[in-house]
Amino acid sequence: MPAIREWWCLRLIERFETEGHGKRFTHWTEEARCLTEGTLRPVYRSFPGLTHDLPQHVVARRNRKLSNQALVDFIVARGTDNHIQSIINGQKKSQWLDTFSKCSIKKVPVPLFNEDQEQIDMIYTHLTSILNSTPTHTHSDQIRFIMDVLFPESIICALAVVEHVSILKAEEKFLRGPVIEVSGSTLTAG
């Protein structure tokens, strides 16, 4: 999937001209221009220690992936299992569960904190195993329940423990989304 996403982005960049469109492409970088001109090879996979040849955005994405790996490891090592089971069993309140219950027809957007598909799949698989091992769950749309309720709850819980912050601070960080650095500026995805 990451290779297909990258190919699709390149196709979109190639089809739209940047000149004469005002602020339409304010995110346009020199690397993207070189990439479409063919003077820069696309980076499909980076190896540890080879950051000197990589564009800034690729290095930043790899750093986000590495920092998120600690969260994934904590979740998969059963660090959030008690919290998640308490929510499934109704022993703990969850704003994500409340929102999910109120909006049964329409999907409510949940912030994307982790952009790495492999890491998302690892968390999803783990949360699925927790949900399947809990006999009291009664949600008809299991995928939506996992992604809209359990996924944010597990990320927030893991952020609080791994980064030694309160649940409120972890939730604020989750809602802001990942920090993205672009040409010396710091942006948040949220």
TrEMBL record:
<protein>
    <submittedName>
        <fullName>PWWP domain-containing protein MUM1-like</fullName>
    </submittedName>
</protein>
<dbReference type="InterPro" id="IPR048795">
    <property type="entry name" value="PWP3A_3B_4_C"/>
</dbReference>
<dbReference type="Pfam" id="PF20886">
    <property type="entry name" value="PWP3A-B_C"/>
</dbReference>
<feature type="domain" description="PWWP">
    <location>
        <begin position="59"/>
        <end position="182"/>
    </location>
</feature>
<dbReference type="InterPro" id="IPR040263">
    <property type="entry name" value="PWP3A_3B_4"/>
</dbReference>
